[in-house]
């Protein structure tokens, strides 16, 4: 799969993405608001699973590489997965390498994948979750038109707390 935007390209993972993926997933800033900081085994397992997603029919999970369109430089990852088939609800998530924050790449990638989900995956609803302290993710959600439905309290762990 490949989606081309004005400045970003979203594509399936390939073996050449392994090193970048490990660096991104292991970076302290990209896991700051996550349940835990993944270890090398978890990162390797996640990468290997992402390589298998394109073979699933129907495909209900897309973990994709975000690249700069002009030179295919790896910028980050974006994913969308089917949460609730009956109501056609999909969940989107993303992580860009901190080196590429504040350039608009994540906003363009999220818009591109949301458009694909509504047109090609027959999505009815797309949800995203972010830690309440992750202001950057919340602002990105607002920019792409995701409406805040509420705040989940004491339902997720952040760094094992």
Task: Explain the layout of strands and helices.
Elements: E1 2-4, E2 8-12, H1 18-26, H2 40-52, E3 61-68, E4 74-84, E5 89-96, H3 105-120, E6 125-127, H4 135-143
Parallel strand pairs: 5-6
Antiparallel strand pairs: 1-2, 2-3, 3-4, 4-5
Helix pairs in contact: 1-2
How would you describe this protein?
This protein has 161 residues and is of the alpha+beta class. It has four helices and six strands. Strands 1-2-3-4-5-6 form a six-stranded mixed beta sheet, sandwiched between helices. Strand 5 (89-96), helix 3 (105-120) and strand 6 (125-127) form a beta-alpha-beta unit.
Count of folded domains = 1
Oligomeric state: single chain
Helix content: 25-40%
CATH superfamily: Gcn5-related N-acetyltransferase (GNAT)
CATH fold annotation: Aminopeptidase
Largest sheet: 6 strands, mixed
| Shape, per Cα inertia axes | globular
Round the Cα radius of gyration to an integer and report it: 15 Å
* Overall CATH architecture: 3-Layer(aba) Sandwich
Task: State the gist of this model.
The protein has 161 residues and is of the alpha+beta class. Helix content is 29%, strand content 24%. Helix 1 (18-26) crosses helix 2 (40-52).
């Amino acid at each position: 799969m490949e989606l081309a935007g004005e400045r970003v390209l979203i594509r399936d993972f390939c073996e050449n993405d392994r090193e970048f993926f490990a660096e991104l997933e292991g970076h302290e800033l990209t896991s700051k608001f996550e349940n835990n900081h993944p270890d090398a085994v978890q990162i390797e397992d996640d990468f290997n699973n992402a390589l298998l997603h394109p073979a699933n029919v129907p495909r209900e999970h897309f973990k994709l590489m975000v690249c700069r369109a002009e030179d295919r430089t790896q910028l980050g990852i974006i994913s969308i997965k089917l949460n609730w088939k009956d109501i056609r609800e999909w969940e989107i998530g993303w992580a860009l390498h901190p080196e590429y924050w504040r350039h608009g790449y994540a906003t363009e990638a999220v818009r591109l994948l949301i458009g694909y989900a509504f047109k090609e995956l027959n999505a009815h609803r797309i949800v995203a979750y972010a830690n309440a302290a992750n202001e950057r993710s919340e602002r990105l959600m607002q920019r792409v038109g995701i409406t805040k439905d509420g705040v989940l309290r004491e339902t997720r762990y952040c760094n094992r707390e």
